[in-house]
Design brief:
13-stranded mixed sheet, alpha/beta, 492 residues
Length: 492
């Protein structure tokens, strides 16, 4: 075995080792000195540290390797030219507060985690660290003290702040305070993640509240008092100023390339308006991926955010919960607020590589603008044939062929207003929980217009009230097909 590996090129041995699990590599390292030396690079290139105690042992290993490499050299610990340790490329670190409490009786401290991560950054200055806090609470250690410390080389930060498995969460309801243990809407909560000091190298931020609820794919059950409706009062100028003062400097925001928030009880409209305010000290100039799942954000604030961010994003996810028992009441409230997101999606989301939208209702303005709507009315095509949930009303019919031919001919004659240059495959997933925005619109019309979209765009449409989902590939990609509701929900 020793002679065999000595004869093989380094590239070939690394290719062989890349198919082996970490446990297998660790056992293989015990075979001989040559094998031990050969597996060091693949063994430590992409390590996953599952706990705080394992992190301590990992840093001890790095220290020992560095000390061995320093033997025979005139090196002192206070000098900067410290010998490098393992060749770690990226490191995934998980801190589970609940497990640590059950084992040691106390929560891991932010200052200890910071010093351990700093030691890793010294031994491996080019490492990319993914730091994941699991089953934590923002008013307990270590989350409460993150602002006081610095965590170098953490390029991705993940916070799971609920109590149960994220695999058992429901997309139809909002966690109550006794499930999450959080106080809602605290602007100061966001300071360590946005100040640019605590996480100076962070480019990706993910926050997820999860709790034990109805598994995805089961018939949704909306609680009587759903709070994520998008109808809270718009933020006032004084409220935005107060939130800006509580947030402090936002230098870290300009480094973010990806932000993903799911069920964040710490977020409200005032905080969002402050973060993306023109008066903010920094802007998210490098942001490419924005995912907002069931955030309690006013529709007017969300509309302003979409106008600002959509033209520069590549991936956008926006999921709202249901309005409640009455979708008609929800439509009236949206009209009172003067906010309609469908035309904003059509106007500003043209170049997105990925779009995921779930709302109480959607409408034809995702696909056609006001002049095209007037054109259909002018040529005598009756599109007011639907019911409240999007079904065709009894005794009426929709002429889908006439709609398709009229819009196709009209767009061919236009001077390039809708002739977008295709940029590869682009996916669109649109989910309506309770029907359409207009009381007389039909779901068939939306499916017809989705079939007519420009090349390179594939639409997946779902109407939960009709228990119907379908995929509409690009015009040259094939015919539409029906999909199970559960598969669309999983893609959200």
């Amino acid at each position: 075995m020793k002679a065999l590996f000595e004869r093989l090129p380094t590239e070939l041995t690394e290719e062989i080792f890349s198919y082996l699990e970490v446990k297998t590599l660790a056992v293989l390292a015990l075979g001989s000195r040559s094998l031990y030396a050969a597996v060091q690079t693949p063994l430590y290139r992409h390590p996953r540290i599952p706990s705080f105690s394992a992190l301590s042992l990992f840093v001890r290993t790095l220290n020992q390797v560095s000390e061995y490499s320093a033997k025979g050299k005139r090196w002192l610990w206070w000098r900067h030219e410290r010998p490098l340790s393992k060749d770690v490329v990226d490191l995934h670190l998980t801190i589970n507060s609940a497990d640590n409490v059950s084992q040691t009786g106390q929560r891991p401290l932010a200052i200890i985690i910071s010093r351990l991560i700093t030691a890793i950054s010294i031994h491996c200055p080019a490492v990319d660290i993914t730091l994941c806090f699991v089953r934590s609470h923002h008013h307990h250690a270590p989350i409460i003290d993150l602002e006081k410390e610095t965590f170098p080389r953490v390029t991705k930060l993940v916070l799971y702040l609920g109590r149960n498995s994220p695999g058992l969460r429901s997309p139809y309801s909002w966690p109550s305070s006794h499930q999450t243990g959080f106080f809602p809407s605290q602007s100061s909560f966001w300071r360590p993640y946005l100040n640019g000091y605590s996480f100076p190298d962070c480019r990706s931020f993910e926050l997820d509240q999860y709790w034990d609820d109805v598994p995805i794919g089961v018939q949704p059950r909306l609680p009587p008092s759903a709070t994520i409706t998008g109808y809270e009062s718009p933020p006032t100028p004084s409220g935005i100023d107060a939130a800006l003062a509580a947030l402090g400097p936002l230098k870290g925001l300009e480094k973010f390339e990806s932000i993903s928030l799911a069920w964040p009880t710490e977020l409200n409209s005032t905080t969002v308006a402050a973060i993306f305010s023109p008066r903010a000290t920094s802007v998210a100039a490098n942001l490419k991926i924005l995912e907002l799942r069931y955030c309690n954000v006013n529709y007017s604030v969300m509309a302003a955010l979409m106008r600002q961010c959509l033209p520069v994003l590549t991936n956008f996810t926006l999921l709202y919960a249901m309005d409640g028992p009455s979708n008609q009441t929800g439509r009236q409230r949206r009209q009172q607020h003067g906010c309609h997101l469908c035309p904003l999606i059509r106007e500003y989301a043209k170049d997105l590589s990925s779009l995921k939208l779930a709302a109480p209702s959607v409408c034809r303005e995702l696909f056609i603008d006001e002049p095209e709507q007037k054109l259909l009315h002018t040529v005598g095509i009756d599109t007011a044939v639907g019911c409240l949930d999007g079904r065709i009303a009894p005794g009426k019919a929709l002429d889908r062929y006439a709609i398709s031919q009229t819009l196709s001919h009209h767009r061919m004659n236009k001077s390039g207003e809708r002739q977008y240059a295709p940029k590869g495959s682009r996916e669109r997933i649109v989910v309506s929980w309770q029907g359409l925005c207009g009381h007389d619109e039909s779901w068939q019309e939306l499916c017809t217009e989705a079939d007519m979209e420009e090349r390179g765009i594939a639409w997946t449409l779902m109407n939960l009230s009709m228990d119907e989902a379908s995929r509409h590939p690009a015009p040259t990609g094939g015919v539409s097909e029906s999909l199970p509701i559960s598969s669309v929900l999983r893609d959200l």
